[in-house]
Amino acid sequence: MTAIVDMRNIVKVYPNGVVANDGVNFTVEQGEIHALVGENGAGKSTLMKVLYGLEHRTSGEILVKEKPVNFRLPDDAIRTGVGMVHQNFMLVPSFTVAQNIVLGHEPTHRSLLDSHEAARVTQELAEKYGLRIDANAVTDSVNVGMRQRVEILKTLYRGAEILILDEPTAVLTPQETKELFLAVRALVKQGKTVIFITHKLREVKEISDRVTVMRNGRVMGTLPTSKATREGLARMMVGRDVLLTVDKPPTKRGQPVLRIDDLSYISETGRLALKGVKFNVYAGEILGVAGVEGNGQTELVEVLTGLRPATTGTAEIESKNVLRKEPRHVRLAGVAHIPEDRLTNGLALTASIDENLIVDRYFRPPFHKRMAIDYKEVLKQGEDLIEEYDIRTPNGKLPVSSLSGGNMQKVIVAREFSSRPALLIAAQPTRGIDVGATEFVRQQLVRLRTDGTAVLLVSADLAEVMSLSDRIIVMYEGQITGVFPDAASLPEEELGLYMLGLKRQDPAEMEAFL
Amino acid sequence: MNKLLSSTFFRELLRVVVAVLIALGIGFIITLLVSDQPIEAYKAFLFGPLTKINRFGDWIEESITLTFLGLSVAIVFKANQFSLGQEGQMVLGALVSGSIALFVPLPAYLRIPLAIMAAMVVGFLWGWLPGYLKAHLNANEIVSTLMLNAIALLFYEWLLTYYIKPPTAGYTSSATFPAEGTLPTFFPALPFLADLRTLFMNQTNISIALYLVVIAVMVVYFLMFRTPFGYELRMVGANSKFARYGGIDVKKTIVLAFAVSGIFAGLAGSHLAMGIHHKLILNITYALGFEGIVVSLLASNNPLAVPFAALAYGYLRAGANIMERSSDMSREMVLVIQGIIILLVTAEKLMPMVQKRISSRKPGVRTGGDKTDDESVSGTTLAEGGD
Question: Are B272 and B130 in contact (CB under 8 A)?
Fold first, then answer.
């Protein structure tokens, strides 16, 4: 085996003095799938940006195919055969799939774009690598999994031999992830080399040949995946032992906190997203909502939290109606909400951490005194919550944008948990955050439930739903198609059949357990 | 924390100063090309406002107007709303305060506060309107405020021409306001400074608006950074989806941002009428309305920086006037120089570029691959997780 990429003693110091890579040695062999893991902020993305020419190293050497290289721009990297697929897709939404793939290197016919040729070339490329796409579909209308395949094909079309995939599974459903892994294996069979950035240890075990772990800008080690254990990798990433399974003390189910009946919602586009949904959430339990994403979970959460108006039905928190009310009203009724998209809804990135922590309470004592906001209290609460929820920051006056993804999520968790809710609605609470932060968020969720809060957990991560929930409901095409009162004894395959719509329970049969 | 504050403050200041210096340099080159006596002309531009007391007065008076307008813009911009309605709010402020100054027979200590309050109220209302249209009917605020400006300006002209102008007057203007309707001089009546006071009174129109503007700056700062309304305003501006998710009434906040912004443009109008001109004239705003945007941008929408930005920009405008009058430079060339300054100051990319240059020259941080030992880089760790 020969090293196709050899990075030696890479140091990257950002202009603000942050040392993102501190003497990193990283080697990738021809034809392997090499996982690069580490917590958010460990320096793995920076390392790959340096390799791809997006960032310039402060010192060190890079050899690609045994020749020293010095990429000034990604274009240089692509010419040498290094391609990167970013976490956030960079596609033109109004173009067809084929147009996006050939963008920048279009086949022409008498100096005009040859659409037929573009579609043909694209389809051929897709078949060659086993990446299923519809070349003539408009990019905007295809699902996330296909968009990602388009990104990969775009890179291949430009002649990439070494593919860097930056957290490719963060946006995918379990099914799409499986499909991606098949495609990645096919790529390697055809002689490509893949660098796979992730922080999901399960995926490392499943897909990679070798794995390199980074922490604090340094490489902690590189080892064959066959010799790595999830626990061992987690310890290398975090620097201490990590509990991968949540310790869940038994709980006593109390009174129903949230009662939903006959809830329906028609979206702005006229789609019936929720159909006659009915269930209760009880004090002291975690009710998990399982389902393939896009089956109404997002709408359910947003209707319950006041972000969208329900079309019909009722939802009561301790017998107060919360449907078709403003978010302020819903929050005052005792609902806390961890939103699925933390950057859009959960945070104001340019505002300070302290100010992000008061959005639901700035108008109430002790923060509101006479005409003004008492910033001494704001500061004090900020210090307390930063300490209690282990938010890694020098102080609370810094903007949230200065935090890593995991710490941003901790800001949201700190705010929502400290509001002492009767009902917590947590949507994708650990999506895209690292092992350490995931462990923390899950422990806090269980703690809150054991203290008597009702928790509604929506997650695309099936393992998360199964390990955290006391009771599980399955959503399929906007309906509840199954309820499982004892989550612990449920086989994953059984749940999968309900999620795919292959099985459903009789409504009368479900009634007793909702 | 203090260090951080001062350093960001310093960076902002440096940004503005560098931009102004570059622009002045380019301006001088232009002057060299255009003028027959470039040194004289540029001297008039650079030092003119300080050479005579009346010129000094003009500078300060205009800076007061610019400060009110800058505050007005800073408020709406902070909410990420692009209201361009200051011109209309200002002219209506001038109209109502001027009318009260002229026609309401009250003693000065009642008439002046009443006129000022009325200007604030009309500014509030003329701001509320586009705010409501934006928040509830999703009407583009740029279009609606520009249209409302036109309505306000023409309404002003119509009233002035057909009702306020005395029939005997030879040109379109109201009668001069009585003393009960003009803002008194800012200069305190101290016996031992009586001569200086007379000088200022005769040569300038710097009025008690100077104190009003200082109060206004502090009020806006307090409002923006210490009150629940200011918090809502800033959160809506930072991320309106987050504000809504957190329970803030986004629509109400937007409407109020427009309306409160209008108060200060209305104040600018009363300052024009009762402080500077002492009558209502055609083109009383002299298209100053849009200059508030420049001031607010220069100040990065920070109310405490607004008066300084206004003084700097006001100085530029005053110098430009003097250069135009006392040399062969045309006003248009002066406007070119102003344009260059605005362009440079608002070019957000400039400062990071300068910073990059500075940091790449710093010793200790190496570029390229000249050394390979990693021991020599130490001391700094990752921002997160380092401890």
Answer: no
The answer for residues whose C-beta is within 8 angstroms of residue A64's C-beta and 6 or more apart is A4, A5, A6, A80, A81, A82, A162
Strand partners, A21: A12
CA distance A66 to B44: 66
Domains of chain A: 3-238 (3.40.50.300), 256-334+421-511 (3.40.50.300)
Interface test with B, best of A359, A364, A404 (most B CBs within 10 A): A359
Contact A334, A321 (CB under 8 A): no
- The DSSP bridge partners found for residue A36 are A197, A212
Shortest alpha-carbon distance between residue B13 and chain A (Å) = 19
Residue that the structure tokens 């108060």 belong to:
B263
The DSSP output letter for B273 is I
What's the Cα-to-Cα distance from A126 to each of A97, A121, A155, rounded to whole Å? 11, 9, 12
- Residues of chain A found within 8 Å of residue B221, distances taken between Cβ atoms: none
Q: For A368, which of B228, B245, B367 is closest by C-beta distance?
A: B228
Strand partners, A425: A337, A456
* ipTM tops 0.90: no
What confidence tens digit (pLDDT) does each residue in A262-301 have? Answer: 999 998 878 889 999 999 999 999 999 998 777 899 999 9
pTM of the predicted model, to two decimals? 0.78
B375: nearest CA partner in chain A: A23
Query: Given an 8 Å threshold on Cβ–Cβ distance, is A358 in contact with B369?
Result: no
Map tokens 């499986």 to a residue.
A178
CB B71 within 8 A of CB B78: no
Put simply, the answer to whether A13 touches B380 (Cβ < 8 Å) is yes
Q: Is the dihedral of CA B17, B23, B24, B26 positive or negative?
A: positive
CB A339 within 8 A of CB A345: yes
- A72 close to A57: Cβ distance less than 8 angstroms: no
The amino acid that residue A237 corresponds to is M
For the ranges A132-146, B6-20, B199-213, the one whose mean pLDDT is highest: B199-213
